[in-house]
Amino acid sequence: MKAMFFGWSLLSIQLLVLALELEMIDYESQHVTCSKGLSNCTVKAGPGILIQGCPVDEKGLAVQPVLCCRQGTACRPCLHIRLDIQPRNHQTASYVSVCYIVPELIMPLCKKLEFTVIPAALDEQASSKAWLSLLIESEAVSFSSQVTVYVCIFRSTVVLPSVDEVCSSASQGVVEECEVPSFSTLIDQERREVMLQVAKEEDSPHPLEMCLQHEDNGVCRAWKEKPVPLHSVTPCMCFQLWWDKGDERSRRSMSCPFRNNTEMFQRNVWENVSVSVVQRQMNSGGAMLSWNLTAPCRLEAEVWPCQRDAGVDKDRCTELGDIRQRLSNDIWRENDRGHWLMPGVFEDVKPGLDLCVMVKVKGKNSELGPFCPIDSSRWHWRWSLLILVSLMLAGLAVICLYFLHCKLKRWAWEWHQKEWDQLPIRGHVVLLSPPDVDGSVSELVCELGSSLRARGLSVSVDLWNRAEMCSLGPLPWLHSQLQPLNSQGGRALLVLTQAAWKKAEDWGRQWDQQGQQGRDIAQGVEEEKGDEEVEGEDKRLLQGLSSPYADVFSAALSCIKVDHQQGCAGKRFLLVHFESHSAKPLSSERGLPELFQGLPLFHLPSQSQGLLVELAIGSKGPGAGIGVGEKGLFEDIQDEEVEVLQQMFFGVLLCALATLAAKGDMVFTSIFMGGVAAIAGYWLSDRGDRVLDSFLKGR
């Protein structure tokens, strides 16, 4: 239909230039009125229909925007449409379609006007024309809208005035969009602040919004606090207030209440003037002095370069020539803080001089300045001081970590032990005596076996099974005791003494000499042979001391060797050392024998709780472990793997801190240096004894 309207050949476009003051019409509902000669005038919604013999006169379409009010208030924009009627062919009943459209609508909205012509009445007023009047109020018709009205083949376009135009006229107070908050200012000298008092704030159903700006064309930034500090008030400070209605109808009121108090607040402008100065080199090779002046308000001022005296009076600055620059209003621009910035430059200045900038503001008797380039040596000194303090703090952290490391580990270990003491332990333990068992060692071995049995473990001690060992033989007995470890879980404990240390070293040398025979013996120990004993040359590696338990200890060494070859050293065997007896022979200069390397070592009684924890988490059988015997999520992770994971974690953390510190952030730089020092302290505290022993041996 819109295309059909535009396609009509006879168009009459009437663009009305509207006055600021709109006519206000009391309006209750959409209605139509008609002149004498017409009756039964009604209006209803309907489609636009073209009729033959349009009853509207050729120049009989007039459209005027008005304010439709209810009892003189709550006025809204609407259209007043007048149609001059010229009956055709003595028609009596007739109708006409009135359609209107705005750019936001796709299809026009239409009304159907029906009326009846009274011929007698028309004859009486032949000199005047009959007319129809229609008021249209619609959500589509708003302020600043362009509305086009179609009647038959005629068209008229009007543009409604804007909200600001309407509100600046006498219509203010009756149009809802014109309602804006009004406020006044109150200066409180005691609190050193300015209060904003908003009228009728409590009576408004909408929340109050406010923003602050400097100068009329400045950016208005949100301001939540009504009190304004007195030291920040300037003559160019302005406020915008509005009721937040959640749509575009929220009109703002703007006021600059301090513009007339220049004498009181001009000092705040002068005190907040700052100038940054940088001396640079031009492309031609000469020197130039670049400056940026910042102030809360635009100023009328002069700027000139000067040379600062090298004497005691650093504030004395001698002007260089007559090259003053005046600040013009067209170059000022606003920065992110809401202040105004003026850039400038002095070219071809003499290099090597201590150059600064002076400022003379209009209205101020004294000059501002001198403003000089930032002394880079001062910043270097501050950086050096910061680095020195950071290094001192890092060193202090290293020392504290070194001395507190053992205590922290002990506290954590004691807490960990208390948790384990409350849990039952299950599994099988084989306790093997050293080759040089004597009265004191055998007593300690028996006490250890009794203690483990009291904790709920199934314990088998070679000292307690002499009769069975004699009947079966040392090797079958050992095999029968190791076999339950696979089903029940548990560990075999070797008591480490000086004789056991020396026996392991001698056994290792004999293994290397015997070669394949040693491997056959180790394989024979692992295989089930019943009561059959090892004969012939195979006894060489098992013969040693005269003790009846020497063969059992040698067979255990063979099993440990097999575990080493299979890559599962420490899975079945672990070492215990009684601190009352020395374990390392005086003649030995090396560490643990190669055969014992990789086996967990516990010093008793100081590490008794650690031994219990190892027996609990190290048992691999279905009935071993703690509680219900389920294997932990990280139970298979070795100590070396945990250390690698720790190194990876700290490496990633240090890389992230180094990346942040590389951006120049002082906080992250300090954290990075402290982290490096802390990790170094942890590493040194963990390896300090080893490094110290190596140093002393080297000496």
TrEMBL record:
Gene3D superfamilies: 3.40.50.11530. It is a single-pass type I membrane protein. One of its GO terms (molecular function) is interleukin-17 receptor activity. Residues 438-615 form the SEFIR domain. Residues 1-19 form the signal peptide. Keywords: Glycoprotein, Membrane, Receptor, Signal, Transmembrane, Transmembrane helix. This is SEFIR domain-containing protein. The chain crosses the membrane at residues 381-404, 667-685. Pfam families: SEFIR. It comes from Coregonus suidteri. GO terms for cellular component: membrane. Its main location: membrane.
